[in-house]
Amino acid sequence: MVQKAKILLVDDRPENLLALEAILSALDQTLVRASSGEEALKALLTDDFAVILLDVQMPGMDGFETAAHIKRRERTRDIPIIFLTAINHGPHHTFRGYAAGAVDYISKPFDPWVLRAKVSVFVELYMKNCQLREQAALLRLQLEGGGKSAVGDTKEPAGLLAELSARLAAVEEQAEALSKQLDDDSADAAAVATAAHLERKLTGLRRALDALEPGTGSGAPSVPSQN
Q1: 217 — phi, psi (to 5°)?
Q2: Whole-angstrom Cα distance, residue 82 to residue 103?
Q3: Which residues are paired to 51 by β-bridges?
Q4: 111: buried, middle or exposed (CB in 10 Å: 19+, 13-18, 0-12)?
Q5: CA-CA distance, 131 to 124, in Å (whole number)?
Q6: Could you tell me which of 185, 196, 70, 77 has the C-alpha nearest to residue 128?
Q7: pTM of the predicted model as reported, rounded to 2 decimal places
Q8: pLDDT digits 0-9 by tens, 45-54
Q9: Where are the extended beta strands (E) located within 65-188?
Q10: How far apart are CA 59 and CA 57, in angstroms?
């Protein structure tokens, strides 16, 4: 069963959170509420999120300050942030948003369809990254365990490589389709860059598998880093 991605919604107004939930419910992911910057930072201590929708104008810690804290933490600095704002944002506010690390800066009222489409792209990228980490972890376990399966049986090397290759191929196919979709839709540069990073990691993992094929050399290959 595929685990759902978590989306963090940060706004001090309950009616705005309710509206965001109504817009994003069609994505069938886990929506987590936070009514302040402090509450958002607390949620980020324990959970992993695919994307953060962050209101700019909040009492106490505003959206810019909250984003700065998020980007300073190693655990959370790579989570995409979409700023939502009701203030009359000129170039200065837009610049502050991107300088704080946001991938997008959207004014209220916004088009629900556009917001849902933007969020769905980052959810897909997050899911593909999760699949890639699972495949890399499986490869490490198989290499360290000398080809043993989860139940302790030893598989033939050819069968093991074929299984791992097939699983990786499925992820590669989905990542390629997502990249084509981003190109067709003229998506945000941040989303395109994230997809390209995912493809580079897939290429590294494929090379590691290919190095295990008979006749390609001896010794265990290094598995690509997930950073």
Answers
A1: 130, 170
A2: 6
A3: 7
A4: exposed
A5: 11
A6: 196
A7: 0.66
A8: 999 999 999 9
A9: 81-85, 104-107
A10: 7
